[in-house]
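cron nightly-structures :: item 1 of 1
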Amino acid sequence: MADLPETPATRWPRPAIRNTVSFVAVFLGVFGMWEGYKATGLTWPIATDDLSLPHVWRIVGGLLEPARRGANESLGLYLLGEASVTLREALYGLALGATIGLVLAVLLAEVGLVRRGLLPWLVVSQTVPLVAIAPMVVIWGGKVGLPAWTAVTGISAYLSFLPVTINALRGLESTPIIQLELMRTCGARRLQTLWWLRFPAALPHLLSGLKLAATASVVGAIVGEISAGSGRGIGRSILTFTYYYANGPEKLYGAVAIAAVAGVLFVQTLNLVEALTLRHRDRSSR
């Protein structure tokens, strides 16, 4: 029987399957290198004793133990709940940062004076250490009576707006000149050209910027939770387990692992959104 023709419905899952297999392979490879290094018995650059570098199975076993004495909930489920709080704050921060970044990109693309005066300062703003900014944002939020999660969201938005700004600006400027001239010939206004021509042309760049911003937003949310020192979130759990590291180092490693997996899933969700958004464009370009 002849092979059925390939259609978008049969083609689109393949990248997702390849990405999943690659992720699992890398995950297992990291575990293998971890245990291989521990088996060497070295003391430099990282000591291989159980306090400094616990076995992988001890970390996994720690996630299956009760979160606290007398509790029915396992540590893994507890950390997943805390990670969901962090991802929610990161999502709010990403939405806020993306909105600010897109508005700035339009201003930079449309107003030359704003671009010359503002763009260098936007780049400089990202060179300020986050550990210096985060406590100030938390203090400012507390002074006006805002809950801790709003400060965390603000820190997340601070880290995520610039990738969106730069990539959206690049996309807005990627519109072919001949198409811009055609719009002018048809008498289109500036806003119409922006909405019907430049925004669609910038969409692939904008989605790429959002993926970069998603990673930054999760990092910002975790750092913000650590700086806030109160409330919930995986960052707060990491800080707590740091205090009691000597009594259970595998708990800290487990919290870091859950935070990493949560960040990967957050970015992979945006990868799926990108694939679904651009699939019709990919078909029309062939």
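cron nightly-structures :: done
The chain has eleven helices and no strands.
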